[in-house]
Amino acid sequence: MSAQTPIAEVAWQEVVALHAFVERWFRSGAEAPDFTECERALGPDFSMIGPDGEMHGRDAILERLRRARGAYPVDFRIEVLDPAVIWARGDAVLMEYTEQQYRDGQRDARRSTALFLASAAAPRGVEWRHLQETWIEAPQSWQ
Fold first, then answer.
1. Share in percent of the chain as helix, strand, coil (round to 5)
2. Would you give the distance in Å from CA 127 to the centre of its chain?
3. Contacting residues for 96 by C-beta, under 8 A, at least 6 apart
4. DSSP labels, 64-123
5. Domain assignment present for 33
6. What is the total count of domains within the chain?
7. Range of the structural domain that residue 129 is part of
8. How many C-beta atoms lie closer than 10 Å to residue 33's C-beta?
């Protein structure tokens, strides 16, 4: 990871951990992780722009996640790669990373930019404030 700072290291650990949570949450047959971990990781003003360009607030994201419990096949997995610090100062960091999802023998990839702020209430010490995902590769059957 370029331009390593203490908050950037913690933020990257948060990216890895939350994607591991989502992978377990979505996978059918997997034991459900504690959903409050996800709720506590997303800041109160969290917003997300999905790869389709739509803006979603925290409540909508949490509701979509709740409804998607066990919705993907047992082979579903997520990898996060290529972390890069775009900007960091004090208790805030803006990071980029690549997310790849695998299911049903197919892969999609998106480039994400995420803003994190330090938070003692968050599971790993930083909370997600904003996330934007952009398609790199989206299989036609998923669109």
1. 30, 45, 25
2. 11
3. 82, 83, 84, 86, 111, 112, 113, 114
4. HHHHTTT-B-TT-EEEEEEEEEEEEETTEEEEEEEEEEEETTEEEEEEEEEEEEE-TTST
5. yes
6. 1
7. 6-142
8. 14
Cα(7)–Cα(91) distance, integer angstroms: 7
In a domain, 120, yes or no: yes
pTM over 0.90: yes
pLDDT, tens digit (0-9, with 9 covering 90-100), for 89-140? 999 999 999 999 999 889 999 999 999 999 999 999 999 999 999 999 876 5
Token digits of residue 72 = 């993907």
Establish if 1 belongs to a structural domain: no
Chain segment 39-60, per-residue pLDDT in tens: 999 999 999 999 999 999 999 9
Q: Is residue 21 part of a domain?
A: yes
Strand 106-118 to 126-137 pairing:
antiparallel
